[in-house]
Amino acid sequence: MGCTYAILGTGALGGFYGAKLQKAGYTVHFLLRSDYQQVSHNGLIVESKDGDFTLPQVNAYQNVEEMPRCDVVVLSLKTTQNHLLPQLLPSVVKDNGVVLVLQNGLGIEAEVAKIVSHVQVIGGLCFLCANKIAPGHIHHVDYGRIILGEYSSNYQITGIGDKIRQIALDFENAGIEIELTTDLLLARWKKLVWNIPYNGLSVILNARTDELMADEYTYKLVENLMYEVVAGAKSTGRNIPDNFIPTMLDYTNKMTPYRTSMKIDYDERRPLEIEAIFGNPLRTAQSLGVNLPQITCLYQQLKFLDWKNRNISYS
Amino acid sequence: MGCTYAILGTGALGGFYGAKLQKAGYTVHFLLRSDYQQVSHNGLIVESKDGDFTLPQVNAYQNVEEMPRCDVVVLSLKTTQNHLLPQLLPSVVKDNGVVLVLQNGLGIEAEVAKIVSHVQVIGGLCFLCANKIAPGHIHHVDYGRIILGEYSSNYQITGIGDKIRQIALDFENAGIEIELTTDLLLARWKKLVWNIPYNGLSVILNARTDELMADEYTYKLVENLMYEVVAGAKSTGRNIPDNFIPTMLDYTNKMTPYRTSMKIDYDERRPLEIEAIFGNPLRTAQSLGVNLPQITCLYQQLKFLDWKNRNISYS
């Protein structure tokens, strides 16, 4: 007797987790935009290292107004679409329901809580490598674990309530590894330790992770950016332990050469998630009196490149 | 009864100033590498906004050992060739002569003074827009003024001696505008206020000066980098006045859209003058306890891009 789910944004990530839930027997409703025709007629295909499967029929919607209210609304749009949230969220989430934010970056849960103030907001940090290779066709390459944490006002540390436990159970029943945290803010900052240097530099320097690690100068820059993220976390009262940075560097060194999600967005000329990943952490730390100069430098460089990438070049 | 001149590095800059001096009647000896055959047979051509001229015969050399000792040795190589200075300088400069450093960046005069300790070293900051459009064929686009300052140990403030006056007179006779300074170090830092942001960002962001100025984010980044250069100057005891930064920004806004010299080098896959323009100022400030984090970020990004630009890409 699990929850009903709405997937707002059926890209690689939303499509993957939604499909896994439906396959496990849960009722799932998918919001789509460009892939609506394909998916409403032919369903979803998931090619996965854990086993391929097809869902010939899914509940597909083009407009959020047509969707039934659900227990759990999964926010899996890119954050660059978050200006749409006031139109999307209120009509689809049940009173006493949950919005589960499966997006990157900092501060999104607080934005969501302002829009739907009478529901619980839960943040989820996804460690997933998946691509959409065609409309309704997802390739799950590796990983898939989610860290779940409840949002409470100003990102205070929380307990582990019934709702988050129920969601964790549903996802685990669907074969997705779940970890629970009482400190969502710390988890968000820790993910930024990786995302800020690698997403940023991969776009600015047109480089894969292995290239950034092989060069002594960018290695040093990555490391220093990580220390700035730790300083940002500290400004909000969260201590990332000393050994976390060498662990992240070591982990990246051992990874398969990797094109980051921001680099893929850039190469496809899609808008970059600069505000969620860079802007919000910078403004948060700044409001607490802490400047992060090298992250600021990357932020400004990315804003320029993103704008130029999506507008006609005048050269 | 002027000086005799050796031009070490007959590119656009060395070729232009050397040709102007010879045209005015001075004895000039030119060191060449790739253009030797062309220039030794056909001389130099200068197309200039101040009037075109040709020198059908010039004293051209392939090896510094064949050159006569001169009163003034003009160092007009790219700084990326400065590892050659111990082989080049000692045999060509007269005892009691002068080495005139017409290179970009910080700290070169001190390096030269270590190699030829019994001659005077003078620094020259060139505000010249010129390109070599073919072997021995120089296009002088605009400007040409030089600020001259004597180097003394540790860049102390100096007087204006006879030698620098003589050189200034020779250049002025050749139609080159000269300004004299008693504070070479301050002049060098002031030039870096422009060179560091625009040379660096033009390469990293593939952008002209006008694009960097039109975008609010890179405008802010340029401005902040300028403040870091001012902080670097201050670490060495030099105060760049408050109104210098708005003046530089305004000046750049009014410039013709401009591809910086470092961007031209990058596009031609030539080595970039990163150490002279970024590395030396950073190390100087660092040794005095001052970190310049955003300049460091640019330095590390440029080191990566320069390496990748000149080596086989492994993607």
TrEMBL record, chains A, B:
It is an enzyme of class 1 (oxidoreductase). GO terms for molecular function: 2-dehydropantoate 2-reductase activity. Gene3D superfamilies: N-(1-d-carboxylethyl)-l-norvaline Dehydrogenase, domain 2, NAD(P)-binding Rossmann-like Domain. Signal peptide: none annotated. Residues 5-152 form the Ketopantoate reductase N-terminal domain. Coiled coil: none annotated. GO terms for cellular component: cytoplasm. It comes from the Bacteria. Keywords: NADP, Oxidoreductase, Pantothenate biosynthesis. It catalyses: (R)-pantoate + NADP(+) = 2-dehydropantoate + NADPH + H(+). GO terms for biological process: pantothenate biosynthetic process. Its EC number is 1.1.1.169. Residues 183-304 form the Ketopantoate reductase C-terminal domain. Transmembrane segments: none annotated. Pathway: Cofactor biosynthesis; (R)-pantothenate biosynthesis; (R)-pantoate from 3-methyl-2-oxobutanoate: step 2/2. PANTHER family: 2-DEHYDROPANTOATE 2-REDUCTASE (PTHR21708:SF26), PROBABLE 2-DEHYDROPANTOATE 2-REDUCTASE (PTHR21708). Catalyzes the NADPH-dependent reduction of ketopantoate into pantoic acid. Belongs to the ketopantoate reductase family. This is 2-dehydropantoate 2-reductase.
